[in-house]
Amino acid sequence: MTDLKQLRSVMVEANGMLPFEVYKELYHLAAQGSGGTIVEIGTAHGAGTIALCLGALSAGKEPQVFTVDRFEGRYSSRTAYGGVVDNLEIVRTNFRSAGVDRHVQIFAGSSSDFAAQQSLERIDVLVLDADGRIDRDLINFADSLSNDAAIVIDDYDSRAHFSSRADGSTYIDLKHVITKLLLDKYASAGLVDITRICHSTAFCRKKAGSHWDKRQMADLALECYRELVFTDFDRNTIAKWLRQRAKSNIPAWLLRRIRDYRTARMKPVPL
Ligand SMILES: C[S@@+](CC[C@H](N)C(=O)[O-])C[C@H]1O[C@@H](n2cnc3c(N)ncnc32)[C@H](O)[C@@H]1O
Questions:
Q1: Which atom of ligand 1 lies closest to the CA of 136?
Q2: H/E/C letters for each residue in 161-199?
Q3: Which domains does the chain have, with CATH numbers?
Q4: What is the largest distance, in Å, between two alpha-carbon atoms of the chain?
Q5: Can you tell which superkingdom this protein's organism belongs to (predicted)?
Q6: Ligand 1 atom closest to Cα of residue 79
Q7: CB–CB of 29/52 below 8 Å?
Q8: Which residues lie across from 56 on neighbouring strands?
Q9: Model confidence over 93-128: pLDDT tens digits?
Q10: Rounded to whole angstroms, what are the CA distances from 91 to 48, 87, 112, 146, 192?
Q11: CA–CA separation, 32 vs 246, rounded Å?
Q12: Strand 123-128 vs strand 145-153: parallel, antiparallel, or unpaired?
């Protein structure tokens, strides 16, 4: 049984991008489930995969985990670590040191390629933490989801973000906004039940007895994408982003000097 302190340090070693509470929930979800097949879209460096695997193993289950990531591309956070080969090396090392490599199959490619190439008969847990296009993944995996499959969806909140790439170019990131619109739409259409929200991660279940009509799901999704035309933007987000940009342009040596100067001013003056 992995204790929570151990789990925390494994998550840090694997460059986990989610709050620790979310990894704890993933661990417990896999421990409580009936075992079986877990599919995760958005491996990054494997923190979520490891949490799921260790959870299942802690309950004496033999999980079969498929984890999928393109590990490259204009909008992938993995680009900062090199190409596909470099990222695969990092992920494999992380899986080995967490002792889960035997249970995990890594697919380097898009979630659509994975869905087209793998014909999984049954998925018991589906975790989506990729690019916000959850309609695509839910439709692609609709036929494989077990009747009471657990579905975990990250980036479930209405916050629009500004983001910058390593080359300094900037884009508007509506991944969270579209995820919330889509999941709420599917929940109100009676396809999923949202059972718990931890930070920005929604823990859901496929609704018992629901019929997933892929054509209808695509139509519902189109309504959500249409809503993006006018998207609210919180002014604080803009201010925060501008501050971060300004800060990232200040050289490290100057930041150190400012910090030392502030620390010196805070020291009590000897009487
Ligand atoms: C936020 S990170 C995942 C974080 C990870 N679950 C963790 O626990 O640290 C999102 C990842 O999704 C991947 N990704 C984005 N779009 C994808 C797609 N269409 N198919 C497969 N992977 C994708 C990116 O390359 C990136 O590594």
A1: 19
A2: EEEECCCCCEEEECHHHHHHHHHHHHHHCCCEEEEEEEC
A3: 4-234 (3.40.50.150)
A4: 78
A5: Bacteria
A6: 25
A7: yes
A8: none
A9: 999 999 999 999 999 999 999 999 998 999 999 999
A10: 11, 6, 21, 28, 31
A11: 46
A12: parallel
pLDDT tens string 2-34: 678 889 999 999 999 999 999 999 999 999 987
d(CA 166, CA 127): 27
How high does pLDDT run on average in the chain? 92
Q: How far apart are CA 200 and CA 157, in angstroms?
A: 6
pLDDT number for residue 143: 95
Q: How far apart are CA 133 and CA 92, in angstroms?
A: 26
User: Do the strands 201-206 and 145-153 form a parallel or antiparallel pair, or are they unpaired?
Assistant: antiparallel
List the residue whose alpha carbon is closest to atom 11 of ligand 1. Answer: 42
Q: What is the mean pLDDT of residues 81-98?
A: 96
| Residue 248 exposed, middle or buried by CB count within 10 Å (0-12, 13-18, 19+) | exposed
Q: State the distance from the centre of ligand 1 to the C-alpha of 245, rounded, in angstroms.
A: 24
For residue 268, give the DSSP letter. Answer: P
Distance 40 CA to ligand 1 centre (A): 9
Residue from 7, 11, 70 whose mutation best tests the ligand 1 pocket (most atoms within 8 A of CB): 70
Q: How far is the CA of 147 from the centre of ligand 1 (A)?
A: 26
Better-predicted residue by pLDDT, 119 or 43: 43
| Ligand 1 first shell, C-beta below 6 A | 16-18, 41-42, 44, 47-48, 68-71, 76-78, 110-111, 129-131
